[in-house]
Amino acid sequence: MLYFAYGSNLNHFQMKRRCKDSIFIKKINLKHFRLTFRSKYRAADIEFKKNSIVPGGLFEISKSDEKKLDVYEDFPILYKKFYFNYYGKKIMTYTMVDKSPFRYPTERYLNIVKRGYKDCKLDNSALTKALKT
């Protein structure tokens, strides 16, 4: 299964620890969405926004990896699954169920995300913009 990471799961060390079978394929952009942070956890989320993009990492994950991610993402309470097509391939990601207001992430969480941006060689302008919301 193909999985799109856009928050702390971009961090290769964390992703490998969480999902032992995961393989980073490449960086991709999710069009017409923007990155934000919300909830009491101050975690990353995506929301629809025309003419905006969310850079992320495309990973191949196993069924057991997906089950582990479901637990980590508190599916279906905190996050729900969202599917989109990318060049004819079905990709799964998570998006928050409750679209609460912006909450600035903790320094620890933000550092994990920033490391993930480096790991995936992503342009961090979307991250910078999301933090100024």
Q: Would you kindly provide a brief summary of this structure?
A:
The chain contains 4 helices and 5 strands. With 133 residues, it is α+β, with helices and mostly antiparallel strands.
Model description:
This protein is globular. It is of the alpha+beta class and 133 residues long. It has one domain: Hypothetical upf0131 protein ytfp. A hairpin with a 4-residue loop joins strand 2 and strand 3. The chain has a five-stranded mixed β-sheet with strand order 2-3-1-5-4.
List keywords for this structure.
133 residues; alpha+beta; globular; Hypothetical upf0131 protein ytfp; 5-stranded mixed β-sheet; single chain; 4 helices
List strands and helices in order, with pairings.
Blueprint: E1 2-5, H1 12-18, E2 23-38, E3 43-60, H2 63-72, E4 79-86, E5 89-96, H3 107-119, H4 125-131
Parallel strand pairs: 1-5
Antiparallel strand pairs: 1-3, 2-3, 4-5
